[in-house]
Amino acid sequence: MRHVIALDVGGTGMKAALAGPDGQLLHRARRATGRERGPDAVVAGILDFAAELHAYGARHLGEPAAAAGVAVPGIVDEARGVAAYAANLGWRDVPLRELISAELGGIPVALGHDVRTGGLAEGRVGAGRGADRFLFVALGTGIAGAIGVDGRVEAGAHGFAGEIGHIVVRPGGAPCPCGQRGCLERFASAAAVSEAWAAAGGGPDADAADCAKAVAAGDPDAVRVWQEAVDALADGLVTALTLLDPRTLVIGGGLAEAGETLFTPLRDAVRRRVTFQKLPSIVPAALGDTAGCLGAGLLAWDLLNTPTTPAEVTT
Q1: Residues 224, 146 share a domain
Q2: Are residues 90 and 229 in the same domain?
Q3: Does residue 297 share a domain with residue 234?
Q4: Cβ atoms within 10 A of the Cβ of 106, count?
Q5: What share of the chain is helix, strand, coil (3-state, %, to 5)?
Q6: Does the residue 138 lie in any domain?
Q7: Mean pLDDT, to the nearest integer, of 258-282?
């Protein structure tokens, strides 16, 4: 059966699948990323995992994979197929597309940014399906976004499109590792909420999920921490929707798992801030932690469905 390899590389684990032409997942597998062994070992592990998936398809599906899609974190030069930088994996300027293609006998390989790849899946087969313009925002340890236009995701001229977490919402506020002060992710990410709730009385081991539970229970300190995060997030989102005018705003990541504890006040906060802008639908992501893998599969099928030259997909 004709299929592609879909591989989602995370900071601690890798999720993979063999995906059929209609998006069905024919085989799934997971592995540890092994970042504690260093960047060279991480790359070697990715190549080995891809080879294992390739061999499985040849044995059990009657033919080897026709293409592969790989999603990785950090800064990604998708046009050149280079993993430019990832702080949590320690690599720089890794020609990952070329390396994987060579490992798999020269099949075409697509390399994508993890959040943009997850956004692609949400836009085509998830919560943003049917929307001609959507914005996917992942609220995790940091905050990142994906700008969707007519079924594709915009990478930008230099691969930085969608970095909504570094919109400054509190000028002069907390310093951010990016070098600015007051960035959105310093106030509204899961990590930021965890830190603020721990300091406000949640305890040293408290996290954002604990804060959400305390909000639901009516704890006034938790409500204050939560509302400050929601207000910062609404400020960032209104800036983004003013620039992008999306029809649907899809919110995912760990913080979104709080459900209506997040979405009810967030919708209200965004609604209060818009003036001339059109209010988009604000919906939770639908695909959970499978989004990156599904998106990687879509990238691979796009290679097969779009006429390209060998140089475009293997160099």
Answers
A1: yes
A2: no
A3: no
A4: 11
A5: 45, 25, 30
A6: yes
A7: 97
Does 204 reside within a domain?
Answer: yes
Residue 314: what pLDDT?
42
Task: Indicate which CATH number applies to the domain containing 141.
Answer: 3.30.420.40
* pLDDT the model gives residue 138: 94
167: left (phi over 0), alpha (psi -120 to 50) or beta: beta
Residue with tokens 């390739």: 54
Q: How far is C-alpha 114 from the chain's CA centre? A: 4
Predicted local distance difference test score (pLDDT) of residue 11? 85
CB 50 within 8 A of CB 15: no
Q: Residue 96: which of 85, 63, 193, 16 has the closest Cα?
A: 85
310 pLDDT tier (thresholds 50, 70, 90):
very low
> Given a cut of 50, is residue 70 above it in pLDDT?
yes
Question: Are 141 and 228 in the same domain?
Answer: yes
What b/e readout covers 129-156, taking b as 16+ CB neighbours within 10 angstroms? eebebbbbbbbbbbbbbbbbeeeebebe
pTM for the whole thing? Answer: 0.88
Residue 115 tokens read as 């959040």
Structural domain of 144: 129-286
